[in-house]
Amino acid sequence: MRFASLAGRAVIVSESSAVDVEAASAGRFVADPQAAFDDWPAFAAWASTVDASTGTPFDPSTLGAPVPRPRQVFAIGINFTEHAAEAGYPPESLPVTFTKFPTCIVGQDHVVELPPGNVDWEVELVVAIGIGAHRVERSTAWSHVAGLTIGQDLSERVIQLEGASPQFSLGKSFPGFGPTGPWLVTPDEFASPDDLALSTTLNGQRVQDSRTALMIYDVPELIARLSAICPLLPGDLIFSGTPAGVGNRMVPKRFIGPDDVLVSEIEGIGALTTRFVAQR
Ligand code: ZN
Fold first, then answer.
1. Between 8 and 90, whose confidence is greater?
2. Helix (H, G, I), strand (E, B) or coil at 188
3. 144 secondary structure, DSSP code
4. Which terminal residue of the chain, N or C, has fewer Cβ atoms less than 10 Å from its own Cβ?
């Protein structure tokens, strides 16, 4: 099942058509996409009976963030061995964890105003929590996942790396710095949810290309280790870390400029596009 936000309303989508949740459920489930996570098991059970191909055609560029107002957004640094090597970090016993403040979360085809500094790209598999998780074992971790979507952990590297203690959370939370989408895909839709190809192109040139099987901490391990400390709440997001190929590690370094177009793809989900303009 593919869950999305269309003009701010919860929808179940196929590639080309959308079924409005509130209308199709006769009001049992409301239009606010975030409300679906209040009782995700009941919602997912109902939604799995909906034939999305019977819906109405829609313009994919009008999709918003499928999880528009997460209460917590966890983000993981240095979760691919190759990226850890290019960034100069040894593997850690705890995942390097920061937050993207929820005001930065946006959806498909968002236009981001570039702040001063060096704005970089990071494609990431994003996990949405469906059932609250506190101190869960990795063996049951997937049962807490509502679905997977594509994320771009946009990062302004000057702020991120400034000062005695780096400012990851601030440097990665400018307005529009958390594109997610285009939709949330439930785990049952993937043949191998632990091994998905993920890639990024900048203006058509491929800059990142890897597989989630190469993550140091896979999705169950992230849920186990994060939930050992913080309860994970329904509708929370986890940005699971990026593979090698970021602009800050290129020689010479390369950053995002006005009129650039960033497209990230993940196998079994689709493609997420973000556009950039100079700060007005
Ligand atoms: Zn990242």
1. 8
2. helix
3. G
4. C
Tokens of residue 240, six digits? 């699971």
Q: What is the pLDDT of residues 112-153, one digit of tens each?
A: 999 999 999 999 999 999 999 999 999 999 999 999 999 999
CA of 225 to the centre of ligand 1 (A): 17
- Pair (170, 214) in one structural domain: yes
Q: Is residue 152 in a domain?
A: yes
| C-alpha of residue 198 to centroid of ligand 1, in Å | 13
| Overall size of the chain counted in residues | 280
Beta-bridge partner residues of 129: 145
Among 36, 62, 88, the domain boundary falls at: 62
The answer to pTM > 0.85 is yes
Q: What span, in angstroms and rounded, lies between the C-alpha atoms of 237 and 171?
A: 18
Determine the structural domain holding residue 41 and report its residue range: 2-62
The Å distance, Cα 83 to ligand 1 centre, comes to 10
Between the CA of 139 and the centroid of ligand 1 the distance, in Å, is 25
pLDDT tens-digit readout, 157-169:
999 999 888 899 9
28 and 128, same structural domain?
A: no
232 inside domain: yes
